[in-house]
Amino acid sequence: MSNIFSVVPIQHYIILSAILFSIGVIGVLTRRNAIIIFMSVEIMLNSVNLLLAAFSTYHNDAAGQIFVFFIMAVAAAEVAVGLAIIVMIYRNINTIDINELNKLKG
Amino acid sequence: MVVASKNPVHSVLYLILTFFTVAGHYLLLNAQFLALVHIVVYAGAIMVLFLFVIMLLNLNVDKEPVNTNLVKFAGAIAGGSLMLVLIAVLSKTNIMMPAHPANTQIGLIKNLGKVLYTEYNLPFEIASILFLVAMIGAVILAKKNPHTT
To answer: How many Cβ atoms sit within 10 Å of the Cβ of residue B19?
Structure first.
């Protein structure tokens, strides 16, 4: 098996992660649907995971991949709770437009 | 694609595509365990949850809230400049890497499992408690409150 690490420098992974993270940021900034904002947050988490895994493999250190595993666990829990919150918001105000969520405004 | 498509269901499908490409990158990085877990957790669990909620809430294109063009433009500009700055900064840095990284085997399930259950045993157990708390919280939140409705 030819070694990927001699062919692809880590800079490419860094750039890919930066692009993925920026796509997530653009999604959060431009959309108003709460579910799609949630998905954009997932994309950002994924980009960070990818970079952690890349660094861990290039440095031959297992700790990075363990961290990625724990981040995935936390992300799964976060998605479950967040979607429950979104369902509750939809039941209460019948929309998931985040601009309608101004009940806290004084 | 996830960001641009109007229909939330299409967004979810494109998100699944993105997740599979990331899983492919894990495979290329010789991290088989992460690739497997990624596909199972994201494509299996999280995406089903998203699709289920979208269909439960019965959202479609005509009910989709749309921002004004100004906000969209400003958001795209801000995100694009963030990307430019990140790429510019990160390409200027020179990262110290091992000269000849070995053909690593740490991503294999056997080696990763050894590390996970010896060095990181306590965080592993704490993660299970986190899952329990999240499960209870989600059930309580999604349950209809009998006092208010």
So the answer is: 21
